[in-house]
Amino acid sequence: MIDIARVAGVSPMTVSRAFKSEGSVSETTRAAILQAAEDLGYVFDSTASNLRSQRSDFVAVTIPSLNNANFADTVGGLSEGLKARQLQILLGYTNYDILEEERLIEQLLRRRPGAIVVTGGRHTPRARRLLENAGIPVIETWDLPEAPIGHVVGFSNAAAVRGMVDHFVRQGLTRIAFIGGDADRDTRGSDRRAGFVAAMQAQGLAVDRLIAAGPPPISMREGATAMGRLIDTMPDTQAVICVSDLSAFGALTECQRRGLAVPGRYSIAGFGDYDIAAVAVPSLTTINPFSRAIGTKAAALILDVLDGRQDGPALLPITPELLIRESSR
Amino acid sequence: MIDIARVAGVSPMTVSRAFKSEGSVSETTRAAILQAAEDLGYVFDSTASNLRSQRSDFVAVTIPSLNNANFADTVGGLSEGLKARQLQILLGYTNYDILEEERLIEQLLRRRPGAIVVTGGRHTPRARRLLENAGIPVIETWDLPEAPIGHVVGFSNAAAVRGMVDHFVRQGLTRIAFIGGDADRDTRGSDRRAGFVAAMQAQGLAVDRLIAAGPPPISMREGATAMGRLIDTMPDTQAVICVSDLSAFGALTECQRRGLAVPGRYSIAGFGDYDIAAVAVPSLTTINPFSRAIGTKAAALILDVLDGRQDGPALLPITPELLIRESSR
DNA sequence: AGCGGGAATGTTAACGTTCCCCTACTGAAC
DNA sequence: GTTCAGTAGGGGAACGTTAACATTCCCGCT
């Protein structure tokens, strides 16, 4: 900036003002400054700016996995909502591990973000403390935590699955299995499984068809393997709810390989409304969690808090939508 | 740090050393300092550290889309390779738009990253200039640019598709179509299409079955739509190469909905070796671009450059692998 | 006792911005 | 002619850390 100031014949302070598009710089001066900057190949230094102004244009975000369309959609929504303000997303992934999340949160807070968005509502005590003391807006997503740290944008994974169980029961199906959600690490997955168990019990049905699919992320292949085990051990199963659409699609392919009709012999449902659920033949019954809306709502909330339009902690509920498709008709 | 220094009875400089795990701090002092820091709820300020030391622990990365398993794998590989060094990834996505890429690159360079990894080898002149003058290692990936800016980790998209065309020709198929790659914006997609055209001409075959799939990202649904158009207009087509596995799977589902055998009536191939290609029934012939290896190689290269083990610009070629599966047998 | 050397720690200034408080000038109102 | 408000711009210090250099201390050796 000192170099630019020299070339443009002004003080460094004026150069700074020109870049911040503050008022009190005349248009001619500003133009001269921006031209000089371009000529000199100057690139603004956000590091120094953030240090001096004690505020940053970062928003930190933690997600379990990069390679998951649902979370990617949430980040996409966030990114879109924050772009207008020139807020940049600092993304980290936890690999479905709350210990890794703790490390990651500390790393991210070192950058002094202006806000932090985390996936899920379960954290290590230390991570919780870090978030509480960070002095910035904290938003928990994809869950409805019992004791929120700050703001919440999410839904009850358990309640969403209950709706799916009720759907099958209305169709007269009673021997219903659940694939996945066995790993503690995936808290949303195990919440879905717990919701399945509770819903089955509420309907007075036997909960004897829980199939493990291993540690997250649960892929299509693991869904197929789990479905194979289910068919081998409990062939009289009528319907299968999978922890995600990916495993549901895997389960579907296993049926196709064995020549078992879906629907007909087995009804299958997933979770997440991934692209594949709509395109698969048969299309997959699923639950749309409005992943992108979670991101856009979180972004809007961040702007509201930063601008002082939002005072106390906000609770923005999402209502997942049951999508009945060919695989359960 | 001043507060911690007071509590621990040392100077701020010693506190700084304790956090940098430099040698010359006695173990007792270090323990006292870390304890004091924990008690005070101190979180290290990377912003100030980066400003003063004039180096950062950021690596900037641009990818076309968050929601693409191939690029997510590359980022995953990068992330894994850089984690040991505490290097954090600063991710931005360009939405397949080189103008957006230019804006993004400038934004990212403002953070003074230690290196930058970009997807693709085609950039706006200004973006190119920014990268050349950034004074940090630049790595172009997923492509083999004619005039690389710095380092390259990639492969020729055109050459990879040539291998696929040759595979079909060896099977005696001659009426081969290509779906996608019509949008300039997706440079890798259009390179694949150009490779298809060149390979067909080299084989002396007619290039009269190019089906547009619209602007990227090309989804499963668009693959299905394009396949529908192909079947309607040129039903005597024998084989279809799609710009990615997602569109290939979409094409497959369109055949299934119409009761047309794959393989048999139509052979189908994709690109990218996405999970779905292996799991689909029939499994999809595809090309494995070793997405994750691109990331791990780029990460290793960055460390080599930063440590002075790599002098000139490196060219690390990737050799994509043709995977013949059920959809083309 | 005196000296050399290495490990542990301290002091000062600086990284590139921006906050805060000023000054100079212009033009309009009285 | 004086006052006053408003606009454009400047000067100096400070954000929290660390590079560079300086100092202290302890130990072993002659």
From TrEMBL, chains A, B:
Q: What's in the keyword line of the UniProt record?
A: DNA-binding, Transcription, Transcription regulation
- Name of a matching Pfam family: LacI
List the InterPro entries.
HTH_LacI (IPR000843), LacI/GalR-like_sensor (IPR046335), Lambda_DNA-bd_dom_sf (IPR010982), Peripla_BP_I (IPR028082)
Where do the coiled-coil regions begin and end? none
Q: Ranges for the HTH lacI-type domain?
A: 1-53
PROSITE patterns for this protein: HTH_LACI_2
Q: Which GO terms describe its molecular function?
A: DNA-binding transcription factor activity; transcription cis-regulatory region binding
This one is known as LacI family DNA-binding transcriptional regulator
Species name for this entry? Fertoeibacter niger
